[in-house]
């Protein structure tokens, strides 16, 4: 604005314009001062005094165990552990529209972790997104959800983290586009988007989902500033190149999500009538497989209720299988499916017979508007975590060219859904390959 | 008829287009290095390279292979003049029943051609899709490290 006002004056050097330019200058200066004052008032958070490292033995064992459950429910490990890194030692790259953020070390190492954080500092970070030293944390860390976690639960989480093995490791510097590297800007973000609405702890499913488990962080769309759009809760959103489907009346599932099916899915990563968890959700399942059953049941009940008005819940819909029509429309896709996919996915295949897997026509990811999830699974496959049993699928990314993968996806969509064809499939394949690190 | 390029030789195959490559290699072309293990892409004993990347040939229909290069263990050397990996597996005696070894070697070949200085973690992650039920893993890893050195590189210690 300042530059516009001054550069405009030489071209039209008439007195009224000069005067207006002067007023604009003065107004801009005042505005800048006001903004600066606001930044100082809002953005200045005191450093909290470091405390001497707390002995792990000083924490009550039952509290630590409760904290471990909470850490699993909060899926802390997934973001705070780098590939092949030590648990909770941070360093994982989180890709955002604003640049890459590297997660912090939340082990109790005194120099590089949170070993000298008081409980007060921990609680402030969890609820206000402010680090012990007073600097703002980026909302990739979902503190907008953690405002709803009780004092007691935060204290237990603190006890769990402070009793982990300390790992001395410093995360890489964030790589953010200008001006997002300037942390005081986040004071404005918190002012606009950090809502401190309490959730009744006795409604366990809601308390967990809206709080620590921060389900909306992936399943709710975000605005241009990266804040969840409150009135579009659980409308479905993008995360790391995957589409996290709607968990409300907009659920694209063909078979209704019953509470029992959601429980099985959240516990084991497999709901035969819907999907096998892959991508970011597989990591959520890995953590939920180790929490008390009652908590998973509470989450299942909460989301089953949210999806009670979805089209599938109105009932009656059967799985589609238009094989002859799809074979005619996509002969190459049909041949590739017969050679590569049918030995597991065709009726009568061993996996279908022995493990009771139903037709792909029930598959949720074939019924969403974006082909990304389907292609992620075909290109990269998926596997249960090391040492755990669970569904798996080999990766087919090396087997097929982009065009062949697009043919297979087009065939699946035509055969197993009544929905319009997916557009731009070769572009999606190319994007999926890049996101897969190829 | 479908045209394939296998170990640099053009082949014309008279088979259904959805026939798995593995069946063609073994039954039509007499290349018995790649093995049938599970037929479901779960074990890796059928691993061959397509355009220099490892694939499970039991699940790869030949219709997908027009204009692409297939390489099998027979293309890496002969018993008299073994390739670097086969020689290293021999020195390290990295086989018990041997059923998985051709697949292991092909997957390791793909890795070392692209990067002959992988870290130990990269090596283990890359080989993970191939199973060995005899438990020969430590010798297999030693053999791949030896071959990496023989190919002018070497497996690096992982940073953690």
Describe the structure.
The complex is a heterodimer of chains A (438) and B (160). Chain A contains 19 helices and seven strands. Chain A has helices at 2-11, 15-43, 61-73, 76-79, 119-128, 143-146, 151-162, 185-193, 204-210, 216-219, 259-268, 280-288, 293-306, 323-329, 331-345, 350-354, 372-380, 402-416, 425-435, and strands at residues 93-96, 99-102, 175-176, 237-239, 242-244, 270-271, 275-276. In chain A, helix 5 (119-128) packs across helix 7, helix 11 (259-268) packs across helix 12 and helix 14 (323-329) runs antiparallel to helix 18 (402-416). Chain B folds into two domains: 2-76, Ubiquitin-like (UB roll) (Roll), CATH 3.10.20.30; 84-150, DNA polymerase, domain 1 (Orthogonal Bundle). Helices cover 32% and strands 13% of the residues of chain B. Chain B contains five helices and five strands. In chain B, strand 1 (2-6) and strand 2 (9-13) form a beta hairpin. Chain A binds chain B through residues 84-86, 332, 335-336, 338-340, 343-344, 350-351, 392-396, 398-401, 404, and chain B through 17-20, 39-42, 50-51, 53-56, 59-64, 68, 121, 125, 129, 158, 160.
- Main pleated sheet of chain B: 5 strands, mixed
The oligomeric state is heterodimer
State the share of residues found in helices of chain B, binned by percent.
Answer: 25-40%
Roughly what is the average pLDDT of chain A, rounded to an integer? Answer: 91
**Secondary-structure element string of chain B:** EEHEEEHHHH
Strands of the widest sheet of chain B, in order across it, are 2-1-5-3-4
Give the helix/strand class of chain A.
mainly alpha
Give the C-level CATH assignment of the largest domain in chain B: Alpha Beta
Order of helices and strands of chain A: HHHHEEHHHEHHHEEHEEHHHHHHHH
Strand content of chain A: under 5%
Per CATH, the superfamily of the largest domain in chain B is: Beta-grasp domain
Q: What order do the strands of the largest sheet of chain A run in, or round the barrel if closed?
A: 1-2-3
The radius of gyration of chain A is 26 Å
User: Major β-sheet of chain A, in short?
Assistant: 3 strands, antiparallel
- Choose one word for the global shape of chain B: globular
Strand elements of chain B, count: 5
Number of strands of chain A: 7
From the N-terminal CA to the C-terminal CA of chain A, the straight-line distance is: 44 Å
The 3D shape of chain A can be described as globular
Instruction: Kindly identify the CATH topology of the largest domain in chain B.
Output: Ubiquitin-like (UB roll)
């Amino acid at each position: 604005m300042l530059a516009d006002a001054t550069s405009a004056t030489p071209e039209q050097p008439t007195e009224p314009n000069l005067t207006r330019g002067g007023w604009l200058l003065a107004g801009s200066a005042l505005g800048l001062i006001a903004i600066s004052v606001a930044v100082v008032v809002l953005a200045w958070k005191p450093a909290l005094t470091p405390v001497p490292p707390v002995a792990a033995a000083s924490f009550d064992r039952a509290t630590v165990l409760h904290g471990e459950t909470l850490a699993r429910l909060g899926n802390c490990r997934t973001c705070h552990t780098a590939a092949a890194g030590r648990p909770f030692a941070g360093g994982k790259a989180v890709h955002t529209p604003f640049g890459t953020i590297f997660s912090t070390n939340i082990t109790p190492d005194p120099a590089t972790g949170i070993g000298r954080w008081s409980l007060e500092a921990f609680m402030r970070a969890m609820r206000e997104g402010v680090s012990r030293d007073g600097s703002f944390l980026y909302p990739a860390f979902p503190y907008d959800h953690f405002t709803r976690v009780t004092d007691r639960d935060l204290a237990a989480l603190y006890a769990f983290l402070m009793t982990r093995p300390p790992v001395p490791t410093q995360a890489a510097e964030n790589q953010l586009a200008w001006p997002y590297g300037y942390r005081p800007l986040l004071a404005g973000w918190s002012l606009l988007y950090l809502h401190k609405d309490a959730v009744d702890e006795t409604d366990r499913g809601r308390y967990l989902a809206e709080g620590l488990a921060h389900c909306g962080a992936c399943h709710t769309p975000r605005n241009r500033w990266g804040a969840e759009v409150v009135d579009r809760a659980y409308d479905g959103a993008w995360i790391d190149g995957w589409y996290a489907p709607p968990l409300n009346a907009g659920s694209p599932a063909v078979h209704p999500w019953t509470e029992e099916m959601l429980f099985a899915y959240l516990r084991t990563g497999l709901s035969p009538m819907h999907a096998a968890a892959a991508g970011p959700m597989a990591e959520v399942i890995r953590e939920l497989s180790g929490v008390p059953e009652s908590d998973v049941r509470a989450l299942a009940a909460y989301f089953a209720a949210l999806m009670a008005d979805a089209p599938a819940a109105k009932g009656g819909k059967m799985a589609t299988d238009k094989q002859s029509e799809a074979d005619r429309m996509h002969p190459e896709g049909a041949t590739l499916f017969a050679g590569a996919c049918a030995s597991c996915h065709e009726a009568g295949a061993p996996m279908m017979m022995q493990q009771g897997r139903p037709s792909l026509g029930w598959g949720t990811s074939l019924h969403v508007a974006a082909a990304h999830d389907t292609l992620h699974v075909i290109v990269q496959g998926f596997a249960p975590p090391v040492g755990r049993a669970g569904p798996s699928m080999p990766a087919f990314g090396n087997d097929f060219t982009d065009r062949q993968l697009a043919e297979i996806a087009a065939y699946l969509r035509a055969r197993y859904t009544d929905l319009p064809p997916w557009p731009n499939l070769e572009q999606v394949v190319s994007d999926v390959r890049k996101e897969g690190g190829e | 008829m479908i045209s394939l390029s296998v170990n640099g030789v053009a082949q014309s195959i008279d088979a259904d287009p959805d026939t798995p490559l593995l069946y063609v290699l073994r039954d039509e072309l007499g290349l018995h290095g790649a093995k049938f293990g599970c037929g479901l892409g779960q074990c890796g004993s059928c691993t061959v390279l397509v355009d220099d990347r490892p694939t499970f040939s039991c699940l790869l229909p030949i219709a997908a292979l027009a204009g692409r290069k297939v390489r099998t263990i027979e293309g890496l050397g002969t018993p008299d003049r073994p390739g670097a990996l086969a020689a290293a597996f021999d020195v390290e005696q990295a086989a018990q029943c041997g059923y998985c070894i051709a697949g292991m070697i092909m997957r390791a070949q793909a890795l070392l051609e692209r990067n002959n200085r992988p870290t130990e973690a990269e090596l283990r992650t890359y080989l993970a899709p191939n199973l060995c039920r005899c438990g020969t893993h430590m010798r297999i890893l030693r053999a791949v490290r030896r071959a990496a050195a023989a190919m002018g590189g070497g497996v690096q210690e992982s940073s953690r």
